[in-house]
Design a protein that fits this description.
Layout (H helix, E strand, L loop, with lengths): L6 H8 L19 E3 L4 E3 L12 E3 L1 E3 L2 E5 H4 L11 E3 L2 E5 L14 E2 L6 E2 L8 H11 L27 H10 L5 H11 L4 H17 L5 H26 L10
Antiparallel strand pairs: 1-2, 1-3, 4-5, 5-7, 6-7, 8-9
């Protein structure tokens, strides 16, 4: 006697994806686009710490349908004869069937479950169609299942900003005794008496911009230094113009 569909396969077919996570309603990027195969539920990226030791499968979106990468799905089940599509240089497979009325009978391949026109040599348009076909004709899906103890997420998964290294970098920067803006301001105040000091301020700020260009305050520092230098040059020019005895035209 054949065995029914495994729980993870049933969850992949019945769980709702790309909806807001009820546990992280106020968090950004809380769409549930991951399927935990061990818990048989859909989760969002904020739920990952609680499932970090589980088998995780990323679900993607293509033409308003849920898809998974063929490379990941093949580790779990035999996907032969299922038509795959290419998204961002990666092949994906539809999870659920996509019924289509056959308008005319012609040559070519059609899905065994929903009559969708397919390319040769494929006979299933989705994973669901193949599973239904196997259970209908063979009553047992176990020969198509593959042993997979570990399944990691793809490196291109978009993580929320507060879970990336950028937040850690911002934390490290905030713990620095002096920020870039404060350092530049202090240096400009201490050397504002001479024009050479102002030029050094500009060079200092420009060097900092190249090394640490991610800081938004850096551009304020450069703009402030340039304004200070330009104001100083304008003042010096106006003073130099006033020096000397004015030359008047002789009286006739």
């Amino acid at each position: 006697m054949g065995i029914p569909k495994p729980a993870w396969l049933e969850a992949l077919y019945t769980q709702k994806f790309f909806v807001g996570c009820s546990y992280h309603e106020t968090a950004k990027k809380n769409e549930k686009n991951i399927c935990c195969l061990d818990c048989c539920t859909s989760i969002c990226p904020h739920c990952l710490p609680s499932h970090r030791f589980h088998r995780l499968l990323q679900v993607r979106r293509y033409v308003y349908h849920d898809v998974v990468r063929l490379e990941d799905l093949q580790k779990l089940i035999d996907c032969s004869n299922v038509q795959a599509y290419t998204i961002n240089s990666a092949k994906v497979v539809f999870i659920k069937k996509r019924p289509q009325n056959r308008q005319f009978k012609g040559s070519g391949n059609y899905c065994t479950s929903c009559d969708r026109s397919l390319q040769e040599p494929f006979i299933h348009c989705s994973l669901g169609c193949k599973v239904d076909y196997v259970l209908k004709h063979h009553k047992d899906i176990s020969p198509y299942l593959r042993s997979c103890n570990t399944l990691q997420l793809s490196p291109d998964l978009l993580m929320p900003q507060d879970m990336t290294g950028e937040d850690q970098e911002m934390t490290n920067e905030s713990s620095t005794p002096h920020s870039t803006i404060v350092d530049c301001e202090e240096q400009m105040m201490s050397s504002s008496s001479g024009s050479s000091g102002s030029e050094n301020n500009v060079a200092y700020c420009m060097t900092t911009q190249i090394v640490r260009k991610k800081r938004s305050g850096l551009y304020l520092c450069v703009r402030s230094a340039i304004n200070r230098v330009s104001d100083h040059e304008d003042m010096a020019t106006s003073i130099s113009r006033r020096k000397g005895i004015p030359h008047r035209s002789p009286l006739c």
